[in-house]
Every structure is written in C-alpha cells, then in structure tokens.
Amino acid sequence: MVIITKSVLVHFGLKHTKSVSALNDWYKITKASNWNNLSDVKRTYNSVDYIGNDRYVFNIKGNNYRLVTMIHFDIRTIYIRFIGTGTHSEYDKIDCLTI
Predict the structure, then answer these.
(1) CA angle centred on 72, ends 49 and 50, rounded to 5°
(2) What is the C-alpha to C-alpha distance for residues 36 and 38, in angstroms, rounded to an integer?
(3) What is the mean pLDDT of the chain?
(4) Which of 11, 12, 35, 96 has the least C-beta neighbours within 10 A?
(5) Are 49 and 26 in contact (CB under 8 A)?
(6) DSSP conformational letter for 94
(7) What order of strands is seen across the sheet that includes strand 77-84?
(8) Is the pLDDT of residue 96 over 80?
C-alpha cells in the first residue's frame, strides 16, 4: 500500500516518543500489505473499525493512540487523516467522516 504521508507519523512521534515503535510497526506492515477490502485489513489488524466515507480507525499500541485513515483500495493508497493520544479527547472533538 502507498501511505500518504509518513511525515504526519514522524511529527507525532517527535511529540509522543512512546508511540514511535508502534507507529513504525504499523507503517512497515501496512506498506507491505496489499489490501483489497475491509476483510483484508481485518486479517492484518483485527481491531480496525470502518466508520464510513472510506475512513478507517486503527488502534495503535493497545489503543493508546488512534489513527484515522482514508483508504482507497482501487489505487492501493492510504491517506493519514488524524492521529491522537490515549485519552482520545482530541479524537472526540473531530468529525472522522469529514477530516
């Protein structure tokens, strides 16, 4: 899969150093994947949630972080839309369907 943009993960990791290893693992596994649908994603990440409008929420590091992505399976591309911390207070303030 093509992931746009890794810099979002890098910048988040600079502020939240405990997330770096888990985010790097997510990036490596996801980049090497060839997903065609939600079932494929769930085989890799069982806890992923589809929330509509091509948006998928990944729980990172035991749900300490939430990563909202937009996945276009037809062009094998993932857009990182949001990443938030463990309290999810940031996550609760956003509309995942429109970001």
Answers:
(1) 10
(2) 7
(3) 90
(4) 11
(5) no
(6) S
(7) 2-4, 77-84, 65-72, 55-60, 49-52
(8) no
Q: What are the phi and psi torsion angles at 45 (to 5°)?
A: -130, 95
Amino acid, single-letter form, for residue 42: K
Three-class DSSP labels, 13-48? HHHCHHHHHHHHHHHHHHHHCCCCCHHHHHHHCCCC
Confidence band (pLDDT; 50, 70, 90) for 94? low
Cα gap 35→73, rounded to integer Å? 7
Show the tokens assigned to 9: 């993960």
Determine which helix (DSSP H) or strand (DSSP E) holds 84, and give its type and residue range: strand 77-84
78 versus 91: which is more confidently predicted?
78
Residue 58, by phi and psi: left (phi above 0), alpha (psi -120 to 50) or beta?
A: beta
Q: What is the pLDDT of residue 95?
A: 53
